[in-house]
From TrEMBL:
Protein name: Putative glycosidase
Disordered: region residues: 282-407
GO cellular component: fungal-type cell wall
GO molecular function, one term: hydrolase activity, hydrolyzing O-glycosyl compounds
Organism of origin: Lachnellula subtilissima
InterPro entries per UniProt: Beta-glucanase-like, ConA-like_dom_sf, Glycosyl_Hydrlase_16
Length: 430
């Protein structure tokens, strides 16, 4: 769900008036929401964008409103921006409950342009890779928990060569115990975030609910006016300055392929309570049809079924029933156990829950893109910059705002700015 610019403008006004909420179609920590169709643990869901023909969304993927894509055999998916409101974004139609995601991509160069590859849940947990088009020397990792954007000290910039001019493999390994980010291999993570890392506030801010995978390219700084406007200044600095749309300038992020493995049982994932805790997440496939990864079953191909959920063809699955498709909230099977605990309970030796790594400061060769946690940015306004940076990262994915102020959540100035920024860049995705 995405706002039109007109809507965004209206909402922006409302925003400036005071109060809004971070946007999600339905936040299961606040009310009862439809369940999430899960890819499931049958087999990886792979998409080779170099073999997609036409411009429709490939099987298992959904376009954000306003998104147009093209595909070619050399570069795969082309996330092309040619106007300041461009924000091509695609997301998986289904969710994963822990698992691995690996993509081969080339982020978009260009001052003011931000490319992103993120995992995001209905209650706004988030695991991010982001690239600033002005920074060819590093890639940013980040995370958020339950939509909490009150701190922006979680981003780390990892030095890599040709961050936005070269192809790399970017991996995320996500379990209930840790998140690991890898570049170009699955051996040495560039970052490990343990569940109990201090920045997760005793795990409460650790990403742990069913996630969709989203890929997108957007404008972090639209023009000189945005750079001058106090509300967008911080993000503009973070993005390296205004993007240029002179002449026929355009900016493309390319993605050749992506491989997604869901560690969960598939079926329908539901939040059995409002804690947003991993052990509250239930799968309708618990039991017979779960864990039998050898079985050619069900969930494996359900990725192609998109909305039709759990093609749990293996009829046996007790209660997984057919009820789930319409997004009813209670698809959990009788006697279901927790999804989360499967296959993820062991922490590899290298993954000791030391917090050291997670807080390491990556040095960056790019301009103005040092580790935000230090606040020692080159941009003078340390705090503002880092706020904007982290925030905008959140806003990329977190379609900020909604006109519905049902929530009484009050936001501070910084957050309002952040949300305004989210709107300002027109990146309002669902
Ligand atoms: C949000 O995060 C901040 C800083 O990490 C923390 O102090 C605060 O308690 C969190 N808020 C909630 C509601 O968890
Ligand atoms: C974590 O930190 C240790 C010691 O500080 C270092 O040896 C190791 O390479 C680091 N691992 C990662 C993934 O950064
Ligand atoms: C993605 O493309 C890269 C480069 O062509 C290739 O090495 C890798 O095996 C591909 N991955 C998948 C899952 O197809
Ligand atoms: C994720 O990758 C790790 C490391 O390669 C592997 O041990 C684990 O089984 C994978 N998990 C899934 C769900 O594919
Ligand atoms: C659920 O567990 C109860 C008690 O252990 C048992 O009587 C019942 O048959 C189980 N139901 C299913 C569907 O397995
Ligand atoms: C980033 O930090 C490193 C080390 O702290 C410093 O040498 C470098 O000048 C900084 N770069 C910017 C752009 O601030």
């Amino acid at each position: 769900m995405r706002f039109t610019i007109a809507t965004a403008t209206a909402v922006l006004s409302a925003l400036q008036a005071a109060n809004a909420q971070t946007f999600t179609a339905c936040d299961p920590t606040k009310k009862t929401c439809p369940g999430d169709s899960g890819i499931g643990n049958g087999k990886p869901f792979n998409t080779d964008f170099t073999s997609v023909s036409g411009t429709d969304a490939p099987t298992g993927w959904t376009y954000a409103d306003g998104t147009t894509m093209s595909y070619d055999s050399a570069n795969g998916a082309n996330f092309k921006i040619s106007t300041k409101t461009g924000a091509p974004t695609i997301s998986t139609s289904q969710y994963i409950m822990f698992g691995n995601v690996s993509t081969y991509a080339k982020a978009s160069p260009g001052t003011g342009i931000v490319s992103s590859f993120i995992l995001e849940s209905d209650d706004l947990d988030e695991i991010d890779w982001e690239w600033l088009g002005s920074n060819d020397g590093s890639v940013e990792s980040n995370f958020f928990g339950k939509g909490n954007v009150t701190t922006y000290d979680r981003a780390i910039y990892h030095p890599i060569s040709q961050a936005v001019t070269g192809w790399h493999t970017y991996n995320i390994e996500w379990t209930k115990d840790y998140v690991k980010w890898y570049v170009d291999d699955m051996v040495t993570p560039v970052r490990i975030l343990a569940y109990d890392d201090p920045k997760t506030i005793k795990g409460t801010q650790f990403p742990q609910t069913p996630m969709k995978i989203k890929l997108g390219n957007w404008v972090g700084c639209a023009d000189a006016a945005a750079a001058a406007d106090p509300k967008t200044q911080g993000t503009c600095q973070w993005a390296g300055g205004p993007a240029s749309f002179d002449g026929s300038a355009s900016y493309s992020m390319y993605v050749k392929n992506i491989s997604i493995s869901d560690a969960g049982c598939g079926g329908t994932y539901t939040y059995s309570d409002m804690t947003g805790s991993f052990d509250s997440i239930k799968s309708s496939n618990e039991g017979a049809s779960c864990g039998s990864s050898s079985s050619p079953s069900s969930s494996a191909d359900s990725s192609s079924a998109a909305s039709s959920t759990t093609a749990s063809g293996t009829a046996s699955s007790t209660a997984s029933a057919s009820t789930v498709s319409s997004g009813t909230t209670t698809a959990s099977a009788p006697n279901s156990t927790t999804t989360a605990s499967i296959s993820t309970s062991t922490v590899p030796a290298g993954a000791s829950p030391s917090s050291g790594n997670a807080t390491a400061t990556g040095s960056s060769s790019g301009s103005g893109s040092n580790d935000t946690s230090t606040g020692s940015g080159s941009t003078g306004t340390g705090a503002t910059t880092s706020n904007a940076g982290g925030a905008s990262s959140s806003s990329t994915s977190t379609p900020q705002i909604t006109a519905n102020s049902a929530s009484s959540h009050k936001y501070g100035t910084v957050e309002l700015v952040v949300m305004a920024l989210g709107l300002g860049v027109g990146y309002l995705v669902m």
